[in-house]
Amino acid sequence: MQPKSNIVHLPVYQPGKPIEDVKRELGLTEVTKLASNENPFGCSELAKQAIMNEIGNTSVYPDGAAVALTDTLASQLGVGKDQLIFGAGSDEVILMIARAFLVKGDETIMADETFAQYKHNAEIENAAIIEVPLKDGKHDLPAMLAKVTDRSKIVWICNPNNPTGTIVTKEELDVFMAQVPASVLVVLDEAYCEYIDDPSYPDGVDYVKAYPNVIALRTFSKIYGLASLRIGYGIGRPDIIRFVNQVREPFNTTRYAQAAARAALGDHAFVQSCRDRNAEGLRYLQEQFDRLGLSHFPAYGNFVMFDAQRPSAIVFEELLKKGIITRARWTYYPTHIRITVGSREQNEKFIQALEQVLQEVAVQA
Ligand SMILES: *Cc1c(COP(=O)(O)O)cnc(C)c1O
C-alpha cells in the first residue's frame, strides 16, 4: 500500500511539550507552559456558561453553517454573512484554502520561516512551495512579489509572523497589494490581531473590502482563550468564501465551539483585559531582555522571539528542568527562543529561570 508520494516525507506535527509529560519526565510538580501562545488568563466566563448551556444538545449535530455565530460576527466586523467561513481552528481554514485552490503544478509563496501549516497543506496538495527568506525577521514583501509568476496561486502573509512576531505595516501591504495580480489569492493570517493597537498595523477587513483577492484568517484560540474548542474563521469576498465552503466538511465546528465563540465575542471586557495584561507582559519581557543584553524581535502578538546567544536546544532543556516550557529549534534561528507572554507571575518566574540558565550555559561564539 502506498500513500500519495508527496506526503511520504511529511513529518507528524510536533506540538509544544504537554505539561503532564514534563512533570512526569522531570519529576517536577510545578510546570509553566509558555510554548503555544495560549491565553494565560483562560477564557470568558460567558463562554464557559455557553458551553454548559449546550451540554444537553450533545447528541444533536451542530448547525453546519453556524448561522447564529455568523450573524453575530458579520455585524461586529461590518461584513456580509456570505463573507465568513468557520473552521476547526483557523488551521482548518488554511487546509480548506489549500484544498480548494491548489493542484499539482501550482506555485504558492510564503515566508521562511513562518507558520508551518501553509507549507504542510500546500505539500499535501502537491503544489510547488516557494519560500522567501525573512529580512530582519520580517516578511520581505518585495522579494515575495518578485517570485510571482503565472503559475502562482496563493501568497501567505502571517501578520504578525509566527514565530518571529514582526508585522507587515499598512504601507508595505499597500505597495504589495497594488502590484500583485488579482489572480493570486493573498491570505492574511491575523491570528493575533486583537492584541495589536499599533496604528501602522493593517486591518485585514479593510483589505477584503478593497481587493477581490484577499482572505483574512482569525481565530478564537488566542485572545479569546478557546484553543481546545478548535474554532477560527476566514473573511473574504463572497465568491472566495463560496469556494472554500464547497470543500468544507458538513459539521466541522461543534455546538460548544460555536456557542462559546458567540458568547466570547460579546465579552468585550474580557478581551480588553487580556489585551492590557498582555501589553504589560510584553513591556516587562522586552525590558528584561534589554537588561540581560539579549536582542529580540519587535513583538506585537502574545509572544516574543529573543536571541539567547546560546544553542537554543540547550537553553530549552535547561529551562525545562526549571519547569518552563518554551519553543526552540527554529531552522534559521539556532540561538533564538519563542516565549509566550504569560501572567505577571509566570513572566517573572520565566525571567528568573532564564537568568540562571544564562549563567550556566556558555555563550555561543
Ligand atoms: C495559533 C495560530 C493559528 C491557528 O490557530 P487555530 O487554533 O487553528 O485557530 C493560525 N495562524 C497562526 C500564525 C497562529 O499562530
Automatic annotation (TrEMBL):
Belongs to the class-II pyridoxal-phosphate-dependent aminotransferase family. Histidinol-phosphate aminotransferase subfamily. One of its GO terms (molecular function) is pyridoxal phosphate binding. It comes from the Bacteria. One of its GO terms (biological process) is L-histidine biosynthetic process. The gene is hisC. This is Histidinol-phosphate aminotransferase. Keywords: Amino-acid biosynthesis, Aminotransferase, Histidine biosynthesis, Pyridoxal phosphate, Transferase. It catalyses: L-histidinol phosphate + 2-oxoglutarate = 3-(imidazol-4-yl)-2-oxopropyl phosphate + L-glutamate. Its EC number is 2.6.1.9. Signal peptide: none annotated. Pathway: Amino-acid biosynthesis; L-histidine biosynthesis; L-histidine from 5-phospho-alpha-D-ribose 1-diphosphate: step 7/9. The modification N6-(pyridoxal phosphate)lysine is found at K222. It is an enzyme of class 2 (transferase). It comes from Paenibacillus darwinianus. Residues 30-354 form the Aminotransferase class I/classII large domain. Gene3D superfamilies: Aspartate Aminotransferase, domain 1, Type I PLP-dependent aspartate aminotransferase-like (Major domain).
